[in-house]
Amino acid sequence: MKRFKVSVHIVPRKGLLDPQGKAVADSLRTLGFAAVADVHVGRHVVIEMAAADAGTAEAAVRDMCGRLLANPVTEDFEIAGVVAA
Amino acid sequence: MKVGVVSFPGSNCDEDALLAIVERLHESAVLLWHKDHDLQGADVVILPGGFSYGDYLRSGAIARFSPIMQEVVAHARRGGPVIGICNGFQIACEAGLLPGALLRNESLQFRSMPVTLRVESVDTVFTRAATPGARLTMPIAHGDGRYTADAETLARLEGEGRVVFRYVDATGEPTAAANPNGSLRNIAGVTNDTGTVVGLMPHPERAMEPLLGSTDGLVLFESLLATAKA
Hints:
Chain A contains two helices and three strands; from the N terminus they run E-H-E-H-E.
């Protein structure tokens, strides 16, 4: 078994009202970043784990997202990276 | 009737719920510790308000995996009554006992205030003693209460009469101004497909004493008694 660091982005599902993202976008515009069109605030989770290979580690983290890390009703996730730890 | 009130680490309405059952309804009630695997013979389970497990990750997400919740889910699947109040509603949704999810309030503010609810369905074990369309006043106290579900689920809930409570104004209309958290269709509470599991963000257990400003929460528990005696 090798050790891997798997990072995953969890974001609010598109189309759902995202008041946190809107509040941050408004603040950025207030600071003068007029080009900001939209902001979404999500979570970045890093999991350190043992696995036979990178593919196995990623598959396990997808399962974790489906069962705990992301809410299937309101959130989407994407694996941001799998690196040997 | 014996009521079991689950205590998670971070629950803060468990004792209130227990007192409401014992002192106002004169029924027996026990606290059920989150690590236990035993409902202690409870006929009814209350998932109380609070911030279970710090509400880390998402409100209710961690509580769903506690040992006692396996028993609560089995109880619900057998048709046993379960009511989720505030954090308990969030937990019931995370556990798949109820459809949908509760997201951060649209205002981003924690809202602690009395609200007016309209009874939308009396086909549940917690509302059968209520009058359809009746208006109830009880407090809310939450930051994550915006009820959300996909369009298909919402249509099914509405079509099957499973929206139990809606936030309304003084005239009984579900206006945007009467909606404290941005819930879709002003939904404050829903039920499962058998009317045995109910979740709501407002706190009926805090509206059971005249001293606290309202006794409108009593009807939920009187409904249970009516069910138990039926």
